[in-house]
Each structure stands twice: as C-alpha cells, then as structure tokens.
Amino acid sequence: MPNEQHPQTKMIRTSTAASPHREHASSIYMTSSFTFDDAEHARALFAREQEGYIYTRYANPNVSEFVEKMCQLEGAEAGVAVASGMSAVFTALAGLLNSGDHVLASRSLFGSTHQILTNILPRWGIGHSYGEISQPEKWAELVQPNTRLCFVETPSNPALDLIDLAWLGAFCRERDIILVVDNVFATPILQRPLTHGAHLVMHSATKYIDGQGRAIGGILVGDKQYIDELANFTRHTGPSLSPFNAWLFSKSLETLELRMERHCDNAEKVSHFLEGHPQVAWVKYPHLPSHPQYELAKQQMRRGGGIVAFEVQGGLENGRAFLNALQLCSHTANLGDSRTIATHPASTTHSSLTETARQAVGITPGLIRISVGLEHPADVMADIQQALEALG
Ligand SMILES: *Cc1c(COP(=O)(O)O)cnc(C)c1O
What we know:
The chain is 39% helix and 14% strand. The chain is built from 15 helices and eleven strands. Pyridoxal-5'-phosphate binds next to helix 4.
C-alpha cells in the first residue's frame, strides 16, 4: 500500500490475532499456555532468541493485538497491557522506581493513584510532592535531586483542570525525569501526550476504550526502553490482562473515534445547556470559552471530551438531591460509557478527603460530574432539566 493508512482504518483493519481459519472477526485465544514444537523450540523461546507465545501471563495473541492498536493510536513504540487502569499506574511506578526515589505529581489525581503515592510507595522509601496545576511556575522548586518520575492527569478527574503538556514535556526532559500521563479522560482521539514529550501514557481501558461498561483493563504505551522494563516486571508479577477482555477492547477500538466524536458533540450540548440554567452556579468543560484554561484546551485537545462538571446551587444537599431526581441518567461509579452517568464526588469518590483537601483539587460541595453518553442528547438534557427543576 503506497500511503500510510489513517488511524481509523488501522483500528478496523489491524488483526494480528488471526487464526488459519480465515475468520473475519479476530478469534479469542482463551488458553493459559502454548505448545512447543520440540525441546529446542522451548529453549529458544525461553531464551528469547525466537519470538512466540509461551504462557498467557507473559503474552497472548489477543493482548498483543490490543497493544499494537493502542500503540498505533498513541504513536508509541511499544506497550504493555494489564488487568486494570490501577494496575497500569502501579506497574509504571513500581516497575520504574527504586527505593529512595521521589515522584512529582499533580495534586488532582484519580483517588487510587493518590492512595498508591501516599500509602503504598512510602513503605518502600519512595516519596512524592504535589504540584498545583494553577501554579506551574512553582514546580521547579518541587524537584529534588532524586526526582525520577512525574505523574499527571489531564484533564483531571473530576474538576477538568489541565496541565500544559508541551511545557511539562520540556520541563521533564531538561531534568531527566520520566513523564507519565494518565490520558483516560481525553483518549488518544483527542490528545496524544507522547507528541508533547511524555515518555509513557497510561489508560484505564475500562472507560472510553471499552466504552460500553463491560470490562476492566489497563495499558501503558510509550518509549520501548521503559516498556521493556515494565513488560519484564508484569511477566513476573503477573497482573495479566484476560484475552477475553483484550478481545473486547480491540473490537471496541474499531469505533473509538466515532464514539468520541459523538461523546464530544453531546457533552458540548449539555455544557451549553447547563451554562444557561438558573439552578447551576458554574459549568466546567475544556472547550467552553468560560473554562479558565480554554486556550490551552484548544491547543492540546482536539475536542473537549465527554465529561462535564458543574456546581448546582445549594451545595451538598442539592448535589445529592439532584442525583436522586435523575430518571434516565445512571448513578454509578464509572465513566466513558455509552450510557450517561452522573456522580457526586464530594459524597462518594472523594468523600475520604478532608474538606480542605477537596477544595485544593476543585471539588466543591455541589459539584456534579456527568459522563455524557451516546443517548440522544435531547433526552439527556430533558432528564437533567427535570432533576434541576425538582430542586425547587
Ligand atoms: C478509572 C480511572 C483509573 C483507574 O482505572 P481502573 O480501570 O478502574 O483500574 C485511573 N485514572 C482515571 C482518570 C480513571 O478515570
């Protein structure tokens, strides 16, 4: 083929897991292990002198296909898929850091990532400092001689604050710091951190990659140098992704671009609708001109994504009352699903933080996070409208 295919074509046409039976959709390789031709073949595979599958904890055709497709989307040299998004975060940190190292992270992080940094890594003598997204000029002061890795999430969950990836990529490369970006909210369809200097990108495949709320999985893609180390780490520590889940994710990638465009269309409509509503104190959506980092959002995100955050008038009580009044939208702890999902972070996902800690990451008492799904947007807005009216 003369020209490089478009990513959308590659997502639909990449099928590295094909069997000799000429099936049109990829097969599922539900097998724990793979047989050897003879003693010499077994020896060569274990010595890594020859490529081939040995055991599904190490590698599996469905998992390899998923990894290959994610590398194409993110523009990465290599990748390693694991059992969950959190397993990907832990693999990046535990697989690359040594006792005595220091991590620089943005304060706004997914709850469990925060737990790993504050409660688990310190047991192995790995410390961290949090930088404020709103004060990048202060990040240089947070770097220590032993700072080896920087971990950020942009846009952040749930407050949708952004970090300037081009600035951070240069910042980390000048200081020999490995930059790992959680790209769950944006997906590679909207934002590609490796092009801004990140070394590794992490995904919870559970969210938009599956996109239909069916399976848990995670992946890291990026520089081969680091991925090789991490693949060796997961081979022995064992957070392997199930071939069945990998098959689902590979299949879902065929429609990721289509789905993201529609998630963005719908989220834009919902954010405009909310901005004009009297029961709403404020709305945050990266591609709304009222977002404090609107210019940056337009530079580094092709579109604004599928998540909208807003503050209902009346704080905590009304935040809870709003959720109770919803009829169509689901009340569940997930996002990136074809079904619209609403959550109230202050009383659920971020309830273990103190009020001050919540405020520091922009989680106000009446903050509602909506993961806008693929239903007809008029129905989603009608449901939000009736729930807001019920607040009186
Ligand atoms: C869900 C999520 C994770 C964790 O992924 P799991 O698949 O649930 O382990 C990490 N970061 C962000 C931003 C998420 O939304």
